[in-house]
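Figure 3 (text version): structure tokens given as input.
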């Protein structure tokens, strides 16, 4: 007999089934939100993994197409590699949960979330986030939970919690907030230039709702929770720390990390580590933990420098941004390019434009999302951090960073009607030392403008860090964190937006949550930095979008035809449209509503294609003048082709003003002539005259 727990959440029923399925996992629940059903399990290995200095947590969000009544596309007909949405969901589950496991825990932990049924109004991603939290909380795996997650929309100026499909469609905000009992632990957002104060209000409205869910989860844990198992601690022994400090003084360590050059600092730390390895050559146990111990020593030193002495490793003020630079048109022959540099972080973004038919098709669980017109891809090669490693395609980090930049720029893009192009931006990381994702927002914003994409406003992104002390009031927010401050700090708070407001947020933390004053200060700091970057750096490189697309970009002519005439344009088995494409060298897309896009690089070919289509869909009427090509000659006259599949007869008497004995004397196949429509003849056919064309 299984246990069932229910609560009302945002007008729908949240149900948790315990001890119903997957009983061999350390913790398992069958989560129901409305008719959305996700199986969430938490499992841990019996023993720690050897030879690692991190907590090996793996989160999987497995989409099954049967959940929406579909058979997967392609030849294989079974689910393949994880979709982009699945990878992003993995990350959003991982980020709030990881800090709540013990830091010295080295057992492998896997959180599996299997989507089995989807009701479009009840997000499977949200259901999985809630399920992963409660499954881990009732398990015997050490975990300082539960946590809760809420999604917030903004419809007509009002907050909507866990919005339905219809509400998501019209919402100005897509915010996800995860909380512990006391604090906010994760924020992820995409927004249509939402003001900072409104965003903070939304975050804490979600936090308040999270508390109700946590109270509900607490009752389940109290009844079903297993005692947490003992584990082998991999904490660095205090005596090793003491021994290291006698050899390398805190002053020496400060000197080693106090530089703005990443390579110099890494070399300094390598020298220190080698010296310590020599000293402890006889102590194998200590040698195994030396790397972690030096890391902790660096961390302690950097945090003390920042929090107590208000000194940053590169000597900057607390709110100072690293040296900035921006340039455009770096790469020739592409449709648009721009480079943005912030200290030792450097991103070059290239924009490519294509007809809308090139938009990415999506085959996922969300019925509303079938295609993606704007694609942002982010690449992070090993040379950007001075390492050597073969590229194996994008990993979770690259996909996550690309999606964040994409989310930041989507709100400022023109509509399809205003700009009928599919758009792809690719951010290449040339150098990396902190917050490449936000540098890619800046570079991409400028790159879009160089390509002639009429974006509504420039978008800039910046990242804030945090160092906390013993109490909630003892903290320091840092503007524009570099890699070291990210590694050793407590937070990476990324905010992108325009002058008007925020377009994207992503917050990662390593502690058990943030208080409201910290979040408010971080949001204010990012706004100040963002406006400075736009006004003082980006606008000086390119202040507004170019009036038209570049010479190497495809040009698009849009037309509207009667939907009933689409068959005439396409022709039998595509014969007519293929003939137009062959003649003109363009690409033609026709929608069901009769909208036609003609895409090409040569204006002459595009104009010709538009003229041919116009001729095909125009009904012949007396008095209209057309240009046609002689396709066949008969004794009684000549047949002219005005457009593929559209012909008319010029009688021999109507060819010239003088008497014509033989058609061949005046016309030859292939000749292009002007002819006026005379209306219908006795047999109901349209006849034409070359003779009567007005000169």
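Below: residues designed for each position.
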């Amino acid at each position: 007999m299984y246990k069932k727990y229910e609560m009302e959440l945002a007008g729908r029923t949240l149900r948790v089934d315990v001890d119903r399925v997957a009983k061999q996992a350390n913790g398992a629940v069958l989560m129901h939100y409305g008719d959305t059903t996700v199986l969430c399990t938490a499992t841990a290995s019996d023993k720690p993994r050897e030879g690692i200095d991190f907590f090996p947590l793996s989160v999987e969000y497995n989409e099954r197409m049967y959940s929406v009544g579909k058979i997967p596309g392609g030849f294989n007909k079974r689910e393949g590699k994880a979709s982009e949405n699945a990878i992003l969901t993995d990350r959003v589950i991982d980020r709030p949960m990881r800090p709540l496991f013990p830091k010295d825990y080295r057992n492998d932990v896997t959180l599996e979330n299997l989507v089995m049924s989807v009701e479009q109004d009840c997000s499977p991603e949200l259901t999985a986030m809630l399920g992963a939290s409660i499954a881990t909380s009732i398990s015997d795996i050490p975990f300082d939970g539960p946590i809760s997650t809420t999604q917030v929309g903004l419809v007509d100026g009002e907050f909507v919690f866990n919005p339905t499909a219809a509400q998501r469609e019209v919402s100005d905000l897509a915010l996800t907030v995860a909380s512990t009992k006391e604090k906010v632990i994760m924020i992820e957002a995409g927004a249509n230039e939402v003001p900072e104060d409104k965003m903070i209000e939304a975050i804490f409205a979600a936090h308040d709702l999270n508390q109700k869910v946590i109270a509900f989860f607490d009752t389940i844990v109290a009844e079903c929770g297993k005692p947490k198992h003992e584990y082998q601690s991999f904490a660095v022994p205090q005596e090793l720390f003491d021994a290291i400090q006698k050899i390398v003084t805190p002053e020496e360590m400060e000197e080693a990390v106090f530089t703005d050059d990443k390579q110099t600092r890494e070399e300094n730390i390598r020298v220190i580590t080698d010296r310590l390895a020599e000293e402890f050559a006889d102590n194998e146990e200590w040698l195994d933990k030396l790397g972690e111990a030096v890391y902790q020593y660096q961390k302690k030193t950097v945090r003390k420098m920042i929090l107590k002495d208000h000194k940053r490793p590169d000597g900057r003020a607390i709110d100072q941004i690293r040296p900035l630079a921006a340039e455009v048109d770096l790469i020739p022959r592409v449709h648009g390019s721009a480079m943005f540099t912030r200290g030792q972080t450097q991103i070059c973004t290239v924009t490519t434009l294509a007809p809308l038919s090139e938009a990415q098709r999506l085959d996922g669980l969300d019925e509303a999302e079938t295609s993606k017109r704007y694609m942002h891809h982010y690449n992070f090669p090993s040379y950007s951090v001075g390492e050597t490693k073969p590229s194996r395609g994008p990993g979770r980090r690259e996909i996550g960073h690309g999606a964040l930049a994409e989310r930041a720029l989507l709100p400022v893009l023109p509509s399809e009607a205003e700009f009928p192009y599919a758009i792809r931006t690719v951010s290449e990381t040339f150098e990396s030392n902190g917050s490449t994702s936000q540098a890619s927002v800046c570079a991409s914003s400028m790159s879009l403008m160089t390509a002639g994409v009429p974006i509504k406003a420039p978008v800039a992104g910046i990242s804030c860090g945090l160092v906390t002390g013993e109490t909630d009031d003892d903290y320091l927010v840092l503007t524009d964190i570099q890699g070291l401050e990210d590694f050793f700090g407590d937070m990476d708070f990324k905010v992108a937006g325009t002058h008007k407001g925020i377009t994207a947020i992503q917050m990662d933390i390593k502690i058990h949550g943030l208080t409201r004053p910290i979040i408010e200060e971080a949001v204010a700091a990012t706004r100040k930095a963002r406006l400075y970057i736009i006004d003082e750096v980006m606008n000086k490189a390119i202040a507004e979008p170019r009036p038209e697309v570049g010479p190497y970009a495809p040009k698009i002519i849009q037309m509207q035809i009667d939907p009933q005439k689409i068959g005439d344009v396409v022709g039998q088995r595509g014969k007519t449209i293929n003939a137009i494409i062959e003649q003109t060298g363009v690409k033609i897309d026709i929608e069901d509503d009769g909208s036609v896009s003609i895409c090409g690089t040569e204006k002459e070919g595009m104009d010709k294609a538009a003229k041919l289509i116009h001729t095909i869909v125009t009904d012949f009427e007396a008095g209209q003048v057309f240009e046609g090509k002689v396709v066949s000659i008969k004794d009684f006259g000549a047949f002219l082709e005005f457009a593929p599949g559209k012909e008319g007869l010029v009688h021999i008497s109507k060819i010239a003003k003088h008497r014509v004995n033989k058609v061949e004397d005046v016309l030859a196949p292939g000749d292009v002539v002007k002819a006026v429509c005379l209306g219908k003849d006795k047999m109901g056919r349209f006849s034409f005259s070359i003779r009567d064309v007005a000169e």
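The radius of gyration is 32 Å.
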